[in-house]
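Q: I'm writing a short methods note and want an example of a predicted protein-small molecule complex. Could you take the sequence and the SMILES for fe (ii) ion and return the bound structure as tokens? Please keep the output block clean; save any remarks for afterwards.
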Amino acid sequence: MKKIVSLSSLAVFISLFVSCTSSNNKDAKLQTPVTTGTEETQTQNQSPAEAKSKTIADLQDAFKGESTASAKYADYSKKAEQEGYHNIALLFKAASMAEHIHANNHKSVLKEYGAEVPVVTPEYTVNSTKENLQDAINGESYEVATMYPEFLQDAGNSKSQLAQISFNYAFEVEKKHKVMYEKALAALSDNKVNELPQVYYVCPTCGNTYDQTPPERCGISMTSSEKFIKISSL
Ligand SMILES: [Fe+2]
Ligand SMILES: [Fe+2]
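A: Understood, no commentary inside the block.
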């Protein structure tokens, strides 16, 4: 597996973040997350130290979740191959790599903040590929609808820019994973697994996952696609 993004790379992301937002680039998704009217009320009752410790707890939870997802998808990939669903095995492998990148980004931010990186013992069950796909859809849906929106708001409250970037990278990528898994489950139900993509590209910076030839630069982190990890075999 390729070397995962380092802390120094995250520093580069900040400058990208600033340049993206200031240049009004419509393709880049590194914008500051949308805030809501409830935020002001929350910050009024929360000291800066409390806000920061909430963000650190969020990073630790996200690190656990992403580490578990990465391990789980790697095993789901093996199971799919055993069941003869090679193209679904490739999707699980690509997603596993992406989750590993998210976990490492979160870990880098925890270290930057001088916080503890939790020891993770992944716990999950491998079932049939059909059930595994549904489990993956459920997990991605939770992250997209609940977990990352809350964590992004907390990171905004505590003005933790690195955490915002790391959460935003994962949030944007999980949306794509959810759609890919839904398509795979539909193909499995329709007996059309052989029509699913057979090549994936993963951005080493943010885990962005493409199931077709990627653009010149990652649509989330603007990383050159020359650096993307190509996945076409197990
Ligand atoms: Fe992830
Ligand atoms: Fe994901």
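A: Remarks, as requested: Residues 66, 69, 98-99, 102, 170, 174 surround fe (ii) ion (ligand 1) (CB under 6 Å). The mean pLDDT is 87.
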